Amino acid sequence: MSQLELFRKKRKKLGPMQDTEAALDSEACFKLKGSRVTMTILELYRYDYKSFNATLSSTVSSAPDFFQQTPVILSLEKCPADNFIDFIELGELCREYGMIPVAVRGGGEEQIVSANVAGLPSLPPASISRAPEPTEPKAETTVEIREVEVEVPISANKVITTPVRSGQQIYAPGGDLVVLAPVSAGAEILADGNIHVYAPLRGRALAGVKGDDSARIFCQSLEAELISISGNYKVNEDLQGSLWKQAVKAELEGDQLIISPL
Fold it and tell me: Which domains occur in the chain, in start order?
């Protein structure tokens, strides 16, 4: 029996529906999935080429390794709507320094159109007010609160007892991260809540990554490349002051990242 006859015989056994499903399965080459990714926000207050280039150069030079191939969202929420922005020019500048703009957030109508022309999609502003929800009975409101509490269980806290090596990334979703060993340069630790490092912190530590302004960072020896709370950060150059290699805590006061001794 020839190969063609074998194929026709197999096709007949499958039937039209099974044959179509088998063909579709064999042709599938991707799947769309939802995911959550921590992104760097570049908050723009105004734009002109000269000042933006100088400020970006100074910022990146303080921690060049951190900004290599870093995707960023351009926030226009604090930028005047009438400030013209050449997003093609701005994007080229960002890429020159290792940042890759992927979207804009907020902004005026003309700014959004200009960003779209440059290939940058528009995200809704973070400060957008939600429409008032219908008043719910008290019993239903109580159930709603319980559901929110279940999303952040105590078991979400993560404890690491071994050194965090260069190139490693450890994330504690929905809770605190406690590290009982050194965090090496080139390593990155992240948490939705607080970060505690009971050893030298030499890598990068990002607490409150979902926007929790009350999150804090504690470490026994501050030697970090970068620390961040809810998107507000300081790099190595800013940290090397009187508290360098000391036991410290970091917290937010307004939009300022404050470091104080333990």
Answer: 40-123 (3.30.70.260), 156-261 (2.160.20.70)
